[in-house]
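Lest this sound abstract, we let one protein speak, letters for residues, whole numbers for local backbone shapes, and leave readers to judge:
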Amino acid sequence: MDGQFVKMETLDTGRAAPRRPLWRKAWNLLQFAFTLVWTAGCILLAIIVLKLTGDARRPLRMASKLWAPGLLGPATTRFDVQGADAIDWSRPHLIVSNHQSVIDICSLFMAVPVPLRFLLKQEMTRMPFVGWYAKSTGMLFIDRDNPRAAPAMLKAAAAMLSEGWQLCVFPEGTRSRDGTVAEFKAGPFESAIRAGVEVLPVSLDGARQVLPSDGFAVNPGPIKLRFGTPIATTGEGGIRDRNALAQAAHAQVLALLENGGRVG
């Protein structure tokens, strides 16, 4: 189903582009309603578990085992993860991924086999349920409109990595609308250098087609997620310059996409 939103546009011939069929609009609305209800229900359950146990790792794994599969299952025809078995998940990593869709978070939750936290934009804290869950489980936030917030965020991220957590960031800063992987912002890589942990590049492909950024219209299709080779920040060969680290991670993500990262 290719349920992308199609706006009325005037073509050179003077004819208007066709609108989406009414049934497709209704189906998209039903999918959106399910997403809201499923997300709210899973978050309420996760927060109850957190209150009862006091352990953030359990509700984070609930996102991997319950929430994300419930959304990705109907949205994908195939979810293919490669390279996870080669990673030592007993060690913390700064996971850096290209960003295609809001469904990327579901994909990463499912692919990483241990509790995972994200660096999210500050606006997420104002979202009902999602904001509560993110704050309760220890996610980090960045105010993109306030440059003064960056030092505190980097300090918190470095501390989280030093405590042994897996932390995921989208260093492009925003979702790609055409699939192009923008340059990685160097700031988040400073946290890996401070904590002395490896940077783990990840490529995501197919998510943009499954859930485009221009509205909510699910087009079931394949998503491939591929883990790269961890990049050291300590020891011989470790990269201690955040700009060089960002460039090395960016180059690896591009290589993953070009050499088998794309879905057919």
User: Anything to note?
Assistant: Residues 1-17 have pLDDT under 50 and may be disordered. The longest strand covers residues 198-205. The radius of gyration is 19 Å. DSSP finds eight helices and seven strands in the chain.
